[in-house]
Each structure stands twice: as C-alpha cells, then as structure tokens.
Amino acid sequence: MARLSSLLYALAAAKTAWSAALPSDQQPVATADVIIIGAGISGIAVARELALEHNITDFLILEARSEPGGRAHTESLTNPKTGHVTKVEKGCNWIQGPRRQNITKLAKKYNLQTAPQDYDNRTWFEGRRGVDEADTVDVAAGKFVDIDASGLATLYDDISSRILDFIQNRLDDMEVDLTARTGLSMLGWRPKTALQRLYEWVNVDFTTAQPPQVCSLYNAFEQEDYVGADEPEQLVIDQRGYKHIFVEELNAALAAAAGSPASQRLHLDTTVTEINWSPSSPSRLVHTNRGLFAARKHVVSTLSIGVLQDDRVKWTPPLPEWKQEAIFSFGMAVYQKIFLLFDRAFWGPEQFTYYADPEVRGRWPVWQNLNAEGFFNGSRDGYILFNTHVDAEARRVARMPDEDVRAEAMLKLREIYGPDVPEPLDILVPRWDLDPLYMGSYSNWPLGQLDQHHWNLRQPVGKRKEVVFTGESNSREMFGYVQGAWEDGKETAGRVAGCLTGRECPSSLVYETIKTCVEAGSVVKRFEGSWY
Ligand SMILES: Cc1cc2nc3c(=O)[nH]c(=O)nc-3n(C[C@H](O)[C@H](O)[C@H](O)COP(=O)(O)OP(=O)(O)OC[C@H]3O[C@@H](n4cnc5c(N)ncnc54)[C@H](O)[C@@H]3O)c2cc1C
Ligand SMILES: *[C@@H]1O[C@H](CO)[C@@H](O)[C@H](O)[C@H]1NC(C)=O
Ligand SMILES: *[C@@H]1O[C@H](CO)[C@@H](O)[C@H](O)[C@H]1NC(C)=O
Ligand SMILES: *[C@@H]1O[C@H](CO)[C@@H](O)[C@H](O)[C@H]1NC(C)=O
Ligand SMILES: *[C@@H]1O[C@H](CO)[C@@H](O)[C@H](O)[C@H]1NC(C)=O
C-alpha cells in the first residue's frame, strides 16, 4: 500500500500537462462528473464513499495544500540537540465518544495509537500575575488550589447536571433559545472569581471555542449526548498523525478510481478561486491557480464556514440569499494549541494544569502534559507541554511573533513552576484564524442560528443540485468534530450517487425566508419552505 500511495501522490503532485494546442484559457484542464473541492476529512469521505460504496469513479479532487488531510494536520517539534522529531497534532487531536463512532473502527483498522484522556487527572493554579514582567512587583505569588475543597466543582457540576432537563422543558413549552450564559445564570451559576471563570471556561469554551454569551443554549450543550461525554476521549499520539487513517482511505479510493477515464484524480497545490455554477451553463466551471476544471454534474464544496464567510472563493452567480443567511448565521470558532518542547519535565505527573488568570478569562488557561503516563511517557528526546486557548485570546496570540508568544508562555510557566524553568527547545504556534484555507478552527452554533438556517446550510443550490455542500459544519449532531466531517461526507456522497445514477435524486426543501414562529406545531410545519 505504501508503494502504491507514493506513486499516486507522485502522479497527483506532477504538474498538469497543459496542451499547447488548447485555444484559450477557457479550455478545462480536466473534466469529470463530480469535482470535490478540498481533500480534508469530508472530501476524503465523499471520494471514498463514491468509489468504494457506489462504484462511481469519475470524480476529481482539488486541494490547495500539498497534502491531503485538511484540519487533520500533523506538525513537527524538533529537538535541536538530538535532531529528534516528535509529531504533534496542530488540528484535531481526540476521538470523542470512541465506542460508538466509526472513527474508532478506522483507528482500529490502521492500528492508530491513542491514549485515554482523564480530565479528572488535573491540578488548578490561581494566578497572581499579568503578562507583563512589571506586574510581578508587589504581588504575592500564585498558588495551587484544591478544587474539590473549594466547593466550586460541586456547585457547577450540579448546575450542569440540570441543564439538559432545563433545555428539554423549555423546548416542550416552545420557549425560545437563549445563550448558554443566560441558561447558566438562570440555573444559579454566577461566576465572580478568576477561578470560577476558569471552571466555566473549562466546561464551556474548551469545547465550543466560543464564550457562553455567544453559544446557543439549545445546541451548545445537547451535543455532549451525541459525542458521548460519558466515555473517555482518546488522544491520538500516533507518529503517523491523525490524518493517517483518512489518507489511507483516500488512497484506497484513488486506487479504485485509477482505471477510470481521467488519469489524475487528486490535484494538490490547486487553489479554487471561483466557482461558476450557472444552471444555464452545460457544466460547472471551477477556476484555480492551475487553470479551469469542469464538472459535468456536481461540484461538492467542503469549504469551511470560515472560508465561505470570508469570500475566499467567488460564486458566480452569487449564492442565493437563503444560503448566505445560513452561512453568515453560523459561527467559526478559533481553538489554538501552543506546543512547547523542553529537555526536562519540570511539571507534575497529572495530565492537565488549569491556570486561572486574574485579569483575563481564558488567558493561557490549560496546560496539557503530553508526557503523562500512558502518553509519550517521557523520553530523552524531549518533553512536551501544550496550552490551548480559544476565541479572542487565540486571535490575540496568533497576531504576536513566535518570540513574544514564547516569552509570555515562559512568564506563566515560571509563575507556576518557579524561576528555574528552562527555555523551550522548540515552539509551535498555529494561526488558524489567519489561514485563508480555514479562517478559524471549527464551527460553533451561536444564538440566532435557527434549525432552518442549519437545514439550509446543508441544501444544494441549483435546479439540478449543481453545487452540493458538506463538511463538519453541516452535521446536525456532530458539527465541529471529525465524526461530523466524516459522516456528513459519506451521507452527501450517498445523495450525489443517487442523483448521478438516476436511482433517486430527491427534491430538496429550502426555507427561502425564515419567519418568527407564531403558531404551534413541529419545526417543519411551522416554517414554510419550497421544494425544488
Ligand atoms: C485546532 C483544532 C482542533 C480540533 N480538535 C478536534 C478534536 O480533538 N476532535 C474532533 O473530532 N475534531 C476536532 N477538530 C475539528 C476537525 O478537525 C474538523 O471538524 C475536521 O477536520 C473538518 O474536516 P472538513 O473536511 O469538514 O474540513 P477541512 O479539513 O477544512 O477540509 C477542507 C479542505 O479544503 C481545502 N481548501 C480550502 N480552501 C480551498 C480552496 N480555495 N481551494 C482548494 N482547496 C481548499 C483545505 O485545505 C482542506 O483540505 C479540531 C479542529 C481544529 C482546527
Ligand atoms: C463498476 O462500474 C464499472 C463501469 O462503470 C462496471 O464496468 C463495473 O462492472 C462496476 N462494478 C461493480 C462492482 O458494480
Ligand atoms: C457508521 O457508518 C455506517 C455506515 O456508513 C452508518 O450507517 C452509521 O450511521 C455510522 N455510525 C455513526 C455513529 O455515525
Ligand atoms: C494523575 O495520574 C498520575 C499517574 O497515574 C498519578 O500519579 C497522579 O497522582 C494523578 N494525579 C491526580 C491529581 O489525579
Ligand atoms: C507508555 O507506557 C504505557 C504503559 O507502560 C504503554 O502502554 C504505552 O504504549 C507507552 N506509550 C508510549 C508512547 O511509548
């Protein structure tokens, strides 16, 4: 398999042969029934499902990066003393709800190395310092706190255990959605101290990557049911990367498709700039930095909500208003992990150290130990800590040079572990919200996005479903997750296959205008949509 896949990549990476005989730049480089935009998890799921489940192989994949995987993106930390490289996950890292997910089956199939995460294996530190050296003058040192003795955990956990009932009762009474902040407040949670704000961050923002005053109460919490909060999450520590399981599935799909007409299915380093989906045109025209590609039937977009919101790709004609309203109503959150490599572990055995910044909620909030027992176990090749922050803090840090990020991280670490903490050997600072291929990390459901908006987000545009949309954001149950991207890609491929084979191409229901609900009934009956 390794041999075959490198051959396929060599083929894919080779520059498209451009025939000099072609009369104009309007002549497509390649044509296929289906063009899939993006070779992330959902794009791979589409290709895999078409080729291996539906025997449809006339597709092309256009991917801007030089490798597949998308937000499943593995990076390196290098120990300059030994030259040893450790692979860490810049993007997705965990398998959530492992037992019931198909991702677990894939992980087993490829023997992906993971370790169970224990969120109770943690310490808490109350900070006493800002991000400026000068702030250290005249203030007492910070201290570790016993979260159980503080009573804080019991208070929050009691509220959190009641929140799903609170939501269900409101839904039964047809009461409107609220923000997660309002819901928590009404149940009696009113954080005042830095530690309380941190505890809330850990329970809300650490997952949603947006603050509770933005999140939809109905959709920010209920998701835990689907992803299986009751099962230990598995952290992927495989040195082949999380992407490995998806890349292998892509290779299988490409191998199955190799014999069909177009010789080249995966076009890497190919950035889409414009999609002409005009229903009057005989084919869909996809403009890229490597020329024009044509789809006889469907274009499948896996572009992130962030990319769609930021006009990174031009739509000709513009997307219909109902589609735009759905796109702009959804949230693209920023979740960012800063990795630091050290030559010794100066921290404890626990998996997490939570840091309560006295000034800013969510500033350097959680340090995670990759050398905890069962993970990398510690080695002469280096010890890794990483900090996760989200939203405004992630955007702030992303705009700082690496050197300043390192200095700020060191100030915080020396506050917790003392002045002898050594300088890091390497640092990795992802900048997801500045990356034109993503414009953020993953989607989140804000107050204001209604079910009809999310439904519309998933609907194709064009009379013959010229453009079909998929991606993590489109999964109703598991938006924001690897599973969401994978399952939605598979489902979408099933629908595309139905249309292509003429077996079944159902009309789609679209809510062209979404109105305030005034009468009782189920969601679908309440809102008028059109079939086309
Ligand atoms: C930091 C971070 C941490 C995460 N942690 C977890 C986790 O622990 N567990 C979990 O389940 N999920 C996690 N996720 C979410 C998960 O990674 C995503 O849900 C999933 O990878 C999205 O896959 P996708 O195919 O929908 O989108 P993408 O991966 O974004 O795929 C879209 C593809 O399109 C390409 N592209 C973009 N623009 C263009 C263009 N103009 N032309 C051509 N190609 C283009 C991109 O390069 C990309 O390959 C995390 C994400 C991030 C960023
Ligand atoms: C797959 O499709 C090809 C041509 O489209 C056909 O020759 C082949 O028999 C099909 N295979 C299966 C298993 O249906
Ligand atoms: C797993 O995949 C199967 C086959 O595609 C699908 O029917 C099932 O719904 C998936 N399970 C989950 C939990 O998504
Ligand atoms: C965390 O786990 C390690 C290793 O099992 C153990 O030594 C340590 O005591 C645990 N700490 C906490 C706070 O649970
Ligand atoms: C760490 O040690 C555990 C228990 O000894 C072992 O199961 C695991 O494979 C080790 N992990 C690595 C990355 O070496």
UniProtKB/TrEMBL annotation:
One of its GO terms (biological process) is polyamine catabolic process. Pfam families: Amino_oxidase. The keyword DNA-binding does not apply. Its EC number is 1.4.3.-. Residues 1-19 form the signal peptide. FAD binds at residues 42, 63-64, 272. The keyword Flavoprotein applies. Its cofactor is FAD. Belongs to the flavin monoamine oxidase family. This is Amine oxidase. It comes from Cladosporium halotolerans.
